[in-house]
Amino acid sequence: MSRNEQDQAVYLTAEGLEKLKEELAWRTQVRRPEISQHIAAAIKEGDLSENAGYDEAKYQAGMNEGRILELQARIKQAVIIREKNGPAEQVEIGRTVTLADLEFGDHERYTIVGPTEADPSNGRISHKSPIGEALLGKRVGHAITVTTPGGTVQFKVVHID
């Protein structure tokens, strides 16, 4: 994979790719026809120059088509990452990492995923986030210092699954 292809890659789990495909199917098979019906109904009302229903339906159509294009591009550029289990030598996408907060001593556990599936409140951080970037390639025992929107934090890698 060339550097440009890597930059454009959309890292997803198989589950994440399936969710994108489901949304694409809904937008093309359900939402698009619904919007078309709204546009047709608004056209029947006549005088489109002052028809708020028509304007709204056209706006919704544009938003839906934009999302369809975005989903198609993400699906085309998808690189499936597998969540990996068992001990590992270094942090990589798909691994789960246990970190010790060096200031407070508590432990945090994160799975490294692509930006599309990042959900920090559920322990899934992007490999492009400040912490995710700092962790890539690190080994057990390595310490990292990261500047986040909440301030500077220091972690030590305790375990890599």
Concise synopsis of the structure shown:
Helices cover 42% and strands 24% of the residues. With 161 residues, it is of the alpha/beta class.
Features:
single chain, alpha/beta, Helix Hairpins, Chitinase A, domain 3, 5-stranded mixed sheet, 4 helices, 24% strand, disordered N terminus
Explain what this protein looks like in three dimensions:
It is a single chain. The chain is an alpha/beta fold and 161 residues long. The chain folds into two domains: 3-80, Orthogonal Bundle (Helix Hairpins); 96-160, Chitinase A, domain 3 (Roll). Helix content is 42%, strand content 24%. It has four helices and seven strands; from the N terminus they run H-E-H-H-E-E-E-E-H-E-E. The protein has helices spanning 3-8, 14-44, 52-76, 130-135, and strands at 10-12, 78-80, 96-101, 107-113, 124-126, 143-148, 151-160. The chain starts with a helix and ends with a strand.
Number of distinct helices:
4
The total number of structural domains is 2
Q: Which secondary-structure class do the elements indicate?
A: alpha/beta
Q: Can you give the mean pLDDT?
A: 90
Q: How do the helices and strands follow one another from N- to C-terminus?
A: HEHHEEEEHEE
Summarize the biggest pleated sheet. 5 strands, mixed
How many beta strands in the DSSP annotation?
7
Which CATH class of the largest domain is shown? Mainly Alpha
Q: What's the quaternary structure here?
A: single chain
Biggest sheet strand order reads: 5-4-3-7-6
Strand percentage, roughly? Answer: 15-25%
Spatial gap, N to C terminus: 26 Å
Characterize the overall form. Answer: elongated
